[in-house]
Write a structure and sequence with these properties.
By secondary structure, the protein is mostly helical. The chain has eight helices and no strands.
Length: 188
């Protein structure tokens, strides 16, 4: 039985829990594009990306018994969380963060606004590539804040940094993205 995007996650999950090898193959082929996009927000090098995705799928397949189905889309969200966590684990293990840790109190940059440029006429893949070009610390905090909806307090805890460092990295990421967007728009 081959599953498509429209097929019920619950049915696929039932087959996966029975250790159905074709269901594993279907799950992989159905979700690998999405999970690759999630992973590529954090991991830039192609070899590292493949390693993280492989580790993620191993964890997914070995943890299916712990997954609690909560409705259509919950399996996809659960797998994305695993990919994000495995990506962060990889970055930490390889010390690929480039955070500037300050011992003194930083000004509150969260209240400073960066004028967000209009991105309506910029293709999504171009924006995604701009995010991938950010330094690792900026990119990681930006992704956690924007895509994973984490607060600076949560990000600080996840990354073992100060809350002000998270806020500062996010502010700098927004500023750098705005600059890249403005440069891109000048070339249109």
């Amino acid at each position: 039985m081959t599953f498509s995007e429209k097929d019920n996650e619950f049915q696929l999950l039932q087959l996966l829990r029975k250790d159905d090898s074709s269901a594993k193959k279907d799950l992989y082929h159905q979700y690998i594009p999405y999970l690759t996009a999630v992973c590529s927000r954090y991991i830039i090098a192609e070899a590292d990306l493949k390693d993280v995705l492989q580790d993620s799928f191993i964890k997914i397949f070995t943890s299916l018994d712990k997954f609690e189905y909560r409705g259509e889309g919950s399996l996809k969200a659960w797998m994305a969380r695993i990919v994000v966590n495995e990506s962060l684990k990889h970055l930490k293990k390889n010390k690929q963060y480039d955070f500037v840790q300050h011992q003194w109190e930083l000004p509150d940059v969260t209240n400073e606004e960066v004028d967000a440029p209009d991105i309506d006429d910029i293709p999504a893949h171009v924006i995604q590539e701009m995010i991938r070009q950010l330094p690792a610390g900026y990119r990681t905090v930006f992704n956690l804040y924007v895509f994973e909806d984490k607060s600076h307090k949560e990000i600080a805890s996840i990354l073992d940094i100060k809350e002000n460092t998270s806020a500062s990295q996010y502010y700098k990421a927004k500023k750098k993205l705005a600059e890249m967007i403005n440069v891109y728009k000048m070339t249109l």
